[in-house]
Amino acid sequence: MMLRRLRQRFFPRPEDIGIGKDHPLRFASECRGLIHVGAHEGEEAWIYDALKIPQVLWVEGDPDLMSKLRKAISGFKRQTAVEALLAENAGELVTFYVTNNDGASSSVLPLGRHAEMYPEVEVTVQKKLVTETLGKILEIQDPAAVIDVMVIDVQGAELSVLKGAGDRLLQFRWIFAECSDFELYKGCCTLETLTHFLGTKGFLQRKKYVHKEKLGVGTIWDVLFEAC
């Protein structure tokens, strides 16, 4: 019993700290490297550390969140962050809508039916930012780095970001995305459009988890796609 307690304290397994086999991110324990697009404040950093992912690259588009993000991951080895607002094309000046929930719902898209799901959230600031592509971010990384998992949470802009990966999208084994089955943001990528696009690239939907749902509005999903 004492040895087990010592192991759980100093050498915890994922399940020892609440990351059981049914946890949506447990699949990433098998990966060689992970990129998290739409980092926000790095809330999942401890999960990636517990899963012993060899390397984690965080990408965040809002420059005002970078200091919090870097502080959040500073205690974890093999985790780094870059500032880049990803889109299909680089060098475009776009409007970025910042929300009042510490930027958790901020997006390059204006709010759609968002208020029906989160009535307390509203846009408080609009700023102009220049876009970069996922393909470029992956290109400038260490050539020896192998990143085969993408976690993407970009508030309706998933399709634009994925298109910006170009042929480098094929390096991924798994893509884990948050998306809705209704117009959460105006003109946003939905579960249907995301599934269709990734299907054309050889990815199949493997699992999906309810993130939040509301009768008469729709469901926000966390969805796992696997390359086949």
Give a quick summary of the entry.
The protein has helices at 2-10, 45-50, 66-73, 114-117, 134-139, 158-163, 191-200, and strands at residues 34-37, 56-60, 79-83, 85-86, 93-99, 123-132, 149-152, 174-180, 203-214, 218-227. It has 228 residues and is of the alpha/beta class.
Q: What tags apply to this protein structure?
A:
Rossmann fold; methyltransferase; 228 residues; three-stranded mixed β-sheet; SAM-dependent_MTases_sf; seven-stranded mixed β-sheet
Written overview of the protein:
- The structure is a single chain.
- The protein is α/β, with parallel strands linked by helices and 228 residues long.
- It has a single domain (22-87, 133-227), classed as Rossmann fold (3-Layer(aba) Sandwich).
- Helix content is 21%, strand content 29%.
- The protein is built from 7 helices and 10 strands.
- The chain has helices at 2-10, 45-50, 66-73, 114-117, 134-139, 158-163, 191-200; strands at residues 34-37, 56-60, 79-83, 85-86, 93-99, 123-132, 149-152, 174-180, 203-214, 218-227.
- It has a 7-stranded mixed β-sheet.
- The longest helix has 10 residues, at 191-200.
- It is globular.
- 38% of the residues are buried.
- The model is unreliable at 1-11 (pLDDT under 50).
Topology:
Blueprint: H1 2-10, E1 34-37, H2 45-50, E2 56-60, H3 66-73, E3 79-83, E4 85-86, E5 93-99, H4 114-117, E6 123-132, H5 134-139, E7 149-152, H6 158-163, E8 174-180, H7 191-200, E9 203-214, E10 218-227
Parallel strand pairs: 1-2, 1-7, 2-3, 4-6, 7-8
Antiparallel strand pairs: 5-6, 8-10, 9-10
